């Protein structure tokens, strides 16, 4: 069965590219959102197995969004992965303190990388 993925990113170009990449590798992209409010409205209904959240959502913070997911939804935080064009070292303590399973650089985004993270966080 395909893993169900929801992607939150303010870049339509990245959303399209990530969706194509993940679907080619057997994932089902069950939803996308370009803002925190849209993600909060749509994510639970999509019933994803994993949620990818960009740390920089234009004028919004993906770090704040994952904290809101924790408070306002029933999402399993071990299924939330932060993504960014920045490296984990660039973001330091923000990544460590976020209620998310892991951080993944956008340049390393792949179905295999996501599965590896989920396998480490059953």
From TrEMBL:
The lineage of its organism: Bacteria, Bacillati, Actinomycetota, Actinomycetes, Propionibacteriales. Keywords: Phosphoprotein. This is Response regulator receiver domain-containing protein. PANTHER family: RESPONSE REGULATORY DOMAIN-CONTAINING PROTEIN, STRESS RESPONSE REGULATOR PROTEIN 1. GO terms for biological process: phosphorelay signal transduction system. It comes from Kribbella antiqua. Residues 4-121 form the Response regulatory domain. It holds the Pfam family Response_reg. InterPro entries: Bact_response_regulator (IPR050595), CheY-like_superfamily (IPR011006), NreC/VraR/RcsB-like_REC (IPR058245), Sig_transdc_resp-reg_receiver (IPR001789). The modification 4-aspartylphosphate is found at residue 54.
